[in-house]
Amino acid sequence: MFTAAASSSVGRWRTAFLSLRDEISTTPPPPVPLLLEDLLFSQSHSLISAVSHLPLHELTSDCLFLLDLVSKADGPDWIPVSRHTCQLIHDVCARLLFQLNSSSWPLLLHSFASVLEFLLRQPMPSSPYSAAYFSRIEPVIQCFETLRRLAPMHPENIHLVKFLVRVVPLLHQDLVLSYGFSNQDPSPTLLVEKKLPQQNRLWDSMALAFDMFGRAFSLSESLFPTDVSQCTLEVLRKVMDVLASKGQLVEDRFMWSFYSCLLGCVHEVLTNIKCPVSDHVLSFIASLRMFFCFGLTGPPQLSVSDVVHNDKHLNVKLSPLISGVSKNAKNTPYRPPHLRKRDDLNTRQPVSSSWRRLSAHDSGSSDVISSDSDFSDSDGSVPDSYFAQSSKVRIAAIVCIQDLCQADSKSFTTQWVTLFPTSDVLKPRKFEATLMTCLLFDPHLKVRIASASALATMMDGPSSIFLQVAEYKESTKYGSFMPLSNSLGLILMQLHTGILHLIHSDNHGRLLIQLFKILLLLISSTPYSRMPGELLPKVIMSLHARINEGFPFKNDKTGLLVAAIGCLSAAFSTFPPQMKVHNMLLDETSAGFNGCEWNSGVLSTLFRFAEQFSDASTCIEALQVLRAVALNYPTLVPAYWERVSILVYKLLQSAVVEDSPTTWKSSVRESVGYNGDKVLTAAIKVLDGCLRAISGFKGTEDLQYDRLMDTPFTSDCIRSIRISSAPSYGFDNTQEPIFQAGCDQWSEAIRKHIVLVLHHGSAVVRSTTVTCFAGITSSIFSAFNKQEKDFITSSIITAALHDKTPSVRSAACRAIGVISCFPETSLSAEIYEKFILAVEANTRDSLTSVRITASWALANLCDALRYRVDDRSFEGLKTTSQVVDALIECALRLTEDGDKLFTP
User: In this entry, which stretches build a coiled coil (predicted)?
Assistant: First the structure.
């Protein structure tokens, strides 16, 4: 029920708008600006009081009518009217939101854009601190605030984005003028309380605009057309260019909100658009780099309230700000509230005013520093608050760098020289900061973690290929021009130096995890053959030292240890193998089991962790490193074979479960989720790798060349047949004695290890075990006694015919394909027949992966059989012709089973 006052205000509102409509419809119509001033704006306060009492549809209709009328403004008389209209709409929406539909929402945006275009195209005042400039920007603020209230009710964000793309470029000259003044030192004669509010309104308006930009893109994701996305990128790039044009960012409290909203908008746009960004990468990076040191190179400027209320204490307040630390801080780095009582601040070292770097003790001894308390405590001093808030801006800029890399990783690779140092990585850079500067020296942990995440993103993907051209040479050897390959070589050296330094000195779990991830990618991407020879050994020894040092926090210990050992695996897997790494391992193994070097060396540490069956993840990771060493440095394996044999036997006995022969046939346990199964699998792979290394396995090179040369189709060329197994690499050393190695180790492995797990209940353990037989060489097999040969052939035939798991049957077919090439197997035609029957059965398997391996084995059987079909061992065997017929029929059937099966 209306009161008398409410009824009166509603009556004035309706009278005003009815009169406005009537007057406009007359011929000729009166001057609209004077009419609006007389009917509406002269009594705007009383009209506003009627808002809450009007029907929503009536209120919306009247305001849209007014806005549409003013959007056709033309001439100087319309300037105050347009400003009053923006204020009236703003005040109305502050009390009650319009009721807009899918057709009225675009109409509102179009009318607002027209009004702002008219106002912003008026001559701009010469000073951004004048009252005239304040009047110019205030309608923009009011319009943006109104739209921010209305936008959540309308999912059609494309209309809002088009509005912003239309309006924001009109503020470009304002940005250039205001930012230029902001970079100048304030005049002592200029009153601060008059200067700052007017200037602040522009940044407030831009912050609102980019906040709406970001929200629109985050909600609509990739629904925007390409042209709208491109226009948005262009708008953002031009704004970022303004920031970069002065070469230095303005650092005061007024800019925090603007920078945060701008960078947040850039993040949302880069994350959600699908259009190319390659044309903008260079400009964005030039601007974003300036934020790496934001808040670290100068003191914050005080706000208006600080100046007005504390003018007489101005000198007192500025002194600690300029020095970088407050008097109450006792020359110590920032500490969150929950840590200040715990730590003895008097034991801390003073911190530089330029780079307030957390010491290693700060970063490591308080693992809880990753909480949000370092960004949000209310009892901190002014400098504490400033540096915490500015760190959020730095994080936002680094995240945008990461977004650019993900949006266009190919174009981003050309910016490596800009974002990474080529020298002196461990020296702070106040100017021309890089990502490594943030990672090494930023005082806030979250900034360093964000830097590490961005660096890991840059190291992943196409960069691993791009970095293969890197080559290291001393920088003194270059003239005025440095090739890109050499620049990348210097960068990789600096990355190694910086990352290894942090891994050694930092103890914070979250950061260390990121550092190990970076190092893993760095090792995988670095062409060590074109880098200094001591680089890879340095990586290995640094990791070894950090592993031995340990990690102080129980919660992170296992994960960090696994990550560190994983980096060792990547280092030992680099190809080609490095001679200095080989010599380093040779020195260790030459000392023997009882030597002090062996007991403290890398291999000894790996064996120590591999023996810890109770810690499955660490054990598995250490086993993988041992396998990588065996495959990449095979000539060293005989020196530590005895320890490998003891280790594998110990692990097999600790984890193996005694199962009956029927269990593995029915394949009860197919899951590899058990930690014991994973350890067994890793241990068997180490055994397999060492056996292949000792016996010199490299593929099916045991096929004699005379076989190939006898064939009329290959008499003019040499065909190389290889199987899909890990090759062996090593270094030729003519001084080492040539020995007939492998037979004794193979016999020991069959007798001591393989028999324990050949019938294991886990399919993955069985398939890994059967795969070992595919690594036997012809010379090793010929040296076996009859019992050992029968054991091997019967095991793989039984697995191929009777195991229910496809992976096991596939592994058995692969072993058959290898062993069938050996001359020794030709002594028994019965073995050939059993091989053929087993392989032929698997060519009918429903899984393509099994049929592919079976067809490959069948091709090897046919190739071997054609040399032995006339041997005396086949004479009198009634089934020989039947087997040959079966082979022919099977081969013809496989030709119709797809290209992959036809190829073998």
Answer: none
